[in-house]
Records
---
Amino acid sequence: MAVKVAPSLLSADFSRLADEIKRVEENGADWIHLDIMDGNFVPAITIGPVVVKALRRHTKLLMDAHLMVGEPEEHIGSFTEAGVNLVTVQAEATAHLDRTLRKIRESGAKAGVALNPATPPAVLEYVWPLLDLVLVMSVNPGAGGQEFIPAILPKIRTVAEQIRSRKLATELQVDGGVNRENAPAIIEAGATVLVAGSAIFKAENGMALIREINGAGG
Ligand code: DX5
Ligand code: ZN
């Protein structure tokens, strides 16, 4: 199975997001990754449902909202109404993970959980049937352009093995510091969706990286 690429718009030109979506789409992007930050769970503030709704008209690709917000359960409806197909919440940000995941699915979207670098995969143990995606963070959330934390590779392997042994179709997304150099090791560890922001929008030959990754395995 080919690995999917989800460009993170966080490193795109925010004054022309629709054009940036078109550009990654033409270069083979599979999903569009939206980094939602609230100035609370992380210090930065990015975009909300109003902007997401406007972007929805510009692509048919799956839109994946990575909510780096406190009490994400309060914002699920506004993002699914804005048209996102998948909502990922940070495990650390919600007190009632099981309920939050059910709420995402009830709102008609796929459900994902993101794990900060220091959060063990054990938090997933009792919610596997509710998970369409696990997002393993390979940087601490809050900004694009940070360096991949190599100690996360064994964690990716652990989560991949858990998905395999349970025979689940859960996607394993890796986000943070992904680039041309480390992508092969991340794929080898078992990732099925790679998020990349600065390596696509700010690096030389960034657009080519999309097909280098998702065109590799056929
Ligand atoms: C980090 C975000 C990531 C990040 C990806 O808080 O969740 O999506 O912006 O950007 P790069 O690929 O530049 O690390
Ligand atoms: Zn993200």
Note: The pocket of zinc ion (ligand 2) is lined by residues 8, 33, 35, 66, 175, 195 (CB under 6 Å).
---
Amino acid sequence: METVLSGIRSTGQLHLGNYYGALKNFVKMQHDARCYFFIADYHSLTTHPDPSALHGNVRNALAEYLAAGLDPNVATIYVQSDVPQVAELSLLLSMHAYVGELERTVSFKDKIRKHPENVNAGLLTYPVLMAADILMHRATRVPVGKDQEQHLEMTRKFARRFNSIYGVDYFPESLPYNFGNDLVKVPGLDGSGKMGKSEGNGIYLVDSDKEISKKVMKAVSDGGPTEPHQVMADPIQNLFSIMSIVSTPDTYSYFMDKYNSCEIRYGDMKKQIAADMISVISPIRERIVEIKSNDKYINEVVADGASKARESANATIKDVREIMGIKSF
Ligand code: TRP
């Protein structure tokens, strides 16, 4: 069975693009593999050192992932800093990570360019800590976006190097987890290609019904088709794509027919999209609120996840120490 590990940023709220793009797949995947999901709060310290916000961010992220369907009875869900063994593994791995290769990491070069005033050592060793997260559970699969592929490549390099230096076959190859055909791309409603936080066009899982309607009604469209089966402009294609995601196939065909016969009214279409989107998001939003008000539940989930994650972490640390020659007296 595959061991899958996914690291979750503790900053930023989940939008529909995250939900359809990854989360729904995570929810399915948790039943088919040994899954670890963790909130990467140590990592966030490399760029967001705000003590008054950190805990709340972690709590929000947890509540959102749980509300969307990650099941603590099925997967191991934990907070990175609850498993400080990862810091030891990161230290041990750093002995075989070369400064040159760390300096050449795209994300690092990016960070120095954008924040020349804060080029800290944590940023430089970010990929080592990430490798420790992954190798800690000897994960064989890691779902990552494009921006994290290089980090995953470095994880494999560190693992191979460790195996070869010590003449062991200990760390596995951690491969990307590709959802293939299940990967749903949610377009932006501002006429742009993709929904994203940095694009500023997100519809969030915590948005109220009113906010959702407002955002959808403002979606970019055009003057409408003037001849039957007219080629669609990108923003209209986006509207149809999003409709294919949130609405029923019947609804979709209804509006597609209207488009093809030049009878479409985008206002009606948007109203329909908003209503269908609300019926997806509002139950999740309600669960987020419910979970966030239930400290006892959150505490139990976190404690249970930490204890399961530590068990796996302790086993790895014990082996790695032994392989590297650290023996107890
Ligand atoms: N760097 C990842 C991101 O920014 C988060 C992360 C930290 C991660 N450790 C990980 C992802 C381990 C996958 C595996 O999104």
Note: The chain has a mean pLDDT of 95.
